[in-house]
Amino acid sequence: MGGVYQAVYRVALRRLPPEAAHAAGFWLIRAAAAVPGGDWVLRRFLAPRDPVLRVRALGLDFPGPLGLAAGFDKDGHGVAGLAALGFGFVEVGTVTARPQPGNAKPRMFRFPAERALVNRMGFNNEGAAAVAGRLRALRGARGAPGSRPVVGVNIGKTKAVPDDAAIADYVTSARLVADVADYVVVNVSSPNTPGLRDLQAADKLKPLLGAVRSALDEASPRRRVPLLVKIAPDLADADIDAVADLALGLGLDGIIATNTTISRAGLRDSAAVADAGPGGMSGAPLRGRALEVLRRLHARTGDRLVLIAAGGIESADDAYERLAAGATLLQAYTAFIYEGPLWPHRVQAALAGRLREAGPGRP
Fold this sequence. Notes:
Elements: H1 2-11, H2 18-34, H3 38-46, E1 55-57, E2 60-62, E3 66-68, H4 79-84, E4 89-95, E5 108-111, E6 116-119, H5 128-140, E7 150-155, H6 166-177, E8 183-187, H7 202-219, E9 227-231, H8 237-250, E10 254-257, H9 270-276, E11 280-283, H10 287-301, E12 306-310, H11 316-324, E13 329-332, H12 334-339, H13 343-358
């Protein structure tokens, strides 16, 4: 199946505009899972089952540490199918309080030689209410015991909302998704919404996270919804330390390190870089900096926070390296785009072997 995907990618998908190729590939995943028995068959052969992969974090049980990062399934249309392919959890979004179309197209660009993507999607999504309704239906659907995947919801700021109303906008989203999200992530690190990254400053981030925490508690009084923040790799080291200290002080559950970068380091085709224009870069060139940020966060927080590593994870070796550096969970996106539907299963299976080799002292 992996060879088939690579052939399809070379012959067809890579000839489509990146966003169109994404839509086509995602449709195929959803269609396969929607066939009667399709979801069961996929889970039977691809979902992580090895006990060595299981992770208990955020008060949740994860069948494997590798999850799908926000951005692939913005509106929660394909959660079941994506989890069945081998992801231990799926993070949907980024969702905003109001529906919005995102930025003008083209807004996604491939750099296959460097195994990277540049995007300036701009939080295109159907709105938090629509996504919450879809996830509520997923929770209510009957299935085999243990078949419901762990689902996080990543929330961001509506572009049309002025900066002085940002907190209220995030709070609206948090209230809407509180009863359907296994965990919630506050995204203040996308480079594609004007002014958003300014919210990473500690003096602005503290009241925002405090308000979202209160909103989740009020909207979900019987179940504490874990709350995390996602940060940019472009933060200065001192600012990373400040976010870590703030997360500890506020009693946050974790940090996702990292989002995409505004840097273009590692991209060799200067003409293609110029054509792509502004946006966030993901993929292999981000690996080094994302690992540095993770190590710094772990040195600052120890085991007091759940750290989810993202950025440039392509192989079981990459995954193991992040776990050894202090990550509890992992997320990927770009490698999945380039490697296809069997990629999460392959990585989880190979990672299980690495963990068994490591023995009792494993990460």
